[in-house]
Structure prediction request, 667 residues.
Amino acid sequence: MKNTTIPASIFFSFFLMLSCHSGAAEAEKIGVVMECESISRLITDTGIISKALGMKVETSRIETMLDNMSASAGRTGISSNKPFRIFVVTETGDNDPAQAGTEQPDKPVVLVFPLTDNGDTYLKSVGSSYEKKEKAGILTHFSGPAEQCVARESDFYVGIADNQAVTGTDAAKVELVLAHILPGKPVPGSVPGTLKIFVDVAAIMPSVEKALKNSTETMKQAFNSPAATNTPMTNPGQILMAESELFLAIMKQLKTCSYGIGVKDNAIEINSLVAPVAGGQLEAITRTLVPPSGKYTCALSPDAFISTSGNGMNVCDIFIEPYCKMMDTMFDAADPDGKFKTKMRDTIISMKGAFSGEYSIGVIPGASTKDMALVEVIGVNDAAKFRKNILDALNTMKDMYSTSMPLMSMTFEKTRTSGGVEVIPYTCSVNQPAGSPPQASPLMNLGKNYRAEMACVDNAFIYTMGGGTAVMDKVIERLKTAGNKAEPSKAFATLFPTPPDRMISTYSIELGRLIKAFMASLPNSEQMIQMIPDSRSGVAGYSVLRGNDIAGVTRIGFEEIECIRSSLMPLGLMMMTSTGGTPGAQANTPRGSPESKCIRNLRMLGDAKEQCALEKNLKDGDTVEPSALTQYLLRGKMPVCPEGGTYTLNPIGKTPTCSIPAHKLKN
Prediction:
């Protein structure tokens, strides 16, 4: 590809939320910088990722499309092998009150293109499509279309520096960016990646606050409309406002954030660098962070589906008060008198300073193949006090359920002992109306009826949900005997064979294996599971300290992407089957009957045909042989009708059929 660019209009909508409004702003700052390493590298990575997603993208067509876009915009002389950047300039001062109600949307985007020369080719090409106006200081002013070309923008300014073209519709903003990129000025953000984004949090805060406020007001008004006035629940606008305040409280602890995404070692890699505000509460905590001992990590089994562990749980202290305010709003509908809300607030506030820092949280297999469990191990400074706080919170919820939420119930069971440790079990249930159908999978009932346990080992608070008593027993045993040597998960070991020293947190997610475990809890799932390839990777990451900043790396393995992609069709089919009977069967077809089993076989064959058509680019009307489907079927064999019928595959686009008329799969 020779020269290319992307019209500015593509990016304007992306940064609409960050747009400030005109007025007497006191100052302008660069709020966001996006950088692409190069068009060539972007196209290469796009091709790699598209292949992993099962999409066929011809990179040559992308190059041709971008060349045509560049030519249609009348701009050449832009290099495809150097970084190009997008700057968003935000106004950080207050608007002039006299201008209230007359504000006009600003255009904060400034584009920076790498050039093939000192700018002569680029300026000449622009001049052939736009009328060159007067020289505006160090900028060249272009306006209106030349007769031979219809303009894409009506008025814009161009500055040339260090073989780069800086262009935008606001001269002051262009000059600000131009000064920023002059030789000797550092480029914000220092993370690797083909695509990068740097955010100056303080600079964008006024725009973010205004956007959240507008969204909140819009939602409030919609909920207060005549059609919604009788809805017995808290106004969603109020909930959004409370959640926004918690979100803003987090953002105000941050100075800058940088992110980068690219391809590395058969995985998508995402890098991050978060800098806390100097002298702020978050920075005070990061200064004291040290790598975790590993003791709590050992509490999780190595075969966990999801696991995260590290140091820094005490950061919750910073956000307890805005969290309480959010919870107050959540309680409004169920607790109009505020009786339980006050109790819960007092309990949560009393937890400030409770966390020592270390933690380990995960989802692990349960006692059977049809079960799984959530496990949390949290380091606390005073285990007895923390346990009392948790029990107080649960009792408050229990009282509120019995008083105001009759469909909910909580029951404390008799305490038991495991390894010399007292264990407190309880159950929480959603009482379904009479006649509600039972769920086909125990896991699908977990959110409606679950059993949890809590215990303390030294200064570790343990909470488990699901999986049976054996889960808590095993966690207690590991905490007492495992020591501090933690074994990394398979996903983490695969994606990071040589991890760095002094990691303050790690995490891994084996979503493909989790999906298979969920499907195994559904009836008649064996053949569907066989259609999903195994994944030796997953999603994994870690964080380390870089001074007082927190640097993180996340990798998403291509094998995991393929596993998840392949699971979507069979998972959807299994969910349909478990919640509403066999798809395509008649409403009165009994489960487990020969007819139902045959229809399920026809559905399997139909899914195998679809998968084959996708991978081999077959179109409607194409024929497919049975031998082409065996790789998508259980044990590589064609299913057999339980009543001796004969299956006909039929061409792509038509459903398979059985020679027995009653065994019919609907289109």
